[in-house]
Amino acid sequence: MSTIKKRWSEMPDWAKYTLYTILGLGGAVLIGLLLGNVILWLWNWLMPKLFGLRTIGFWEALGLFALMRILIGFGSSSHSDDGDSRKQKKNKRKGSCSEEKETGKSWKYYDEWWEQAGKEAFRAYADRMGRNSDSESAPKPEEH
C-alpha cells in the first residue's frame, strides 16, 4: 500500500469531509471562472457582430450562465418522462425476478454451448429462414 493511501485510511472522518468540502468549493470556483470566461468570450465575439449588442463583463457573463441554468437547466438528465423516481427505475433495472437472476448466472456456459450445439442450431435456423424468405419472394399465382 502506498504512503498516501495509508495516511488517507488513518485520517479521521472529519478531516476527510473537510478536505472534500474545500476541494469541492475550489473546483466549483474554477468551473465558475472557466464558464464565465467562455461565455464572456463567446458573447463578446458573436453578439456585437450579429445583433449589434454591447459587450459584457465577467460578472455579467456569470449572471447569464446562472440565468441560463435556471431557465433551461441544461446538463441535467435527472428528469424522467414517466414520472418514476430514481429508486423505482433502479429497482426495475435490477430485475427482482429470480428467473432473470438465474439466466444471468447461466451465461458462463454460453461459450461451451456455442461450440457444442450453438453453431449447428444457428445453421438450421438460418436454413429455415432462408427457405421461408425464398418462398415469400417467389411470384404468387394469379387468382381468376
Offer a concise description of the structure.
74% of the residues lie in helices and 0% in strands. The chain is mainly α.
Question: In words, what does this structure look like?
Answer:
The chain has helices at residues 3-10, 13-51, 58-71, 86-94, 98-106, 110-137. The protein is mainly α and 144 residues long. The N and C termini lie far apart (87 Å). The relative contact order is 0.04.
Question: By helix and strand content, what is the structural category?
Answer: mainly alpha
CA-to-CA gap between the ends? 87 Å
Helicity level, as a percent range? over 70%
Q: Which percent range describes the beta-strand content?
A: under 5%
Q: How many helices in DSSP terms?
A: 6
Compute the CA-based radius of gyration. 31 Å
The number of distinct β-strands equals 0
Stretches where pLDDT falls below 50 for ≥5 residues? none
The main sheet comes to: none
Shape: flat
**Average pLDDT score:** 80
N-to-C SSE series?
Answer: HHHHHH
Please tag this protein with its features.
144 residues, mainly alpha
Q: How do the helices and strands line up, and which of them pair or pack?
A:
Layout: H1 3-10, H2 13-51, H3 58-71, H4 86-94, H5 98-106, H6 110-137
Helix pairs in contact: 2-3
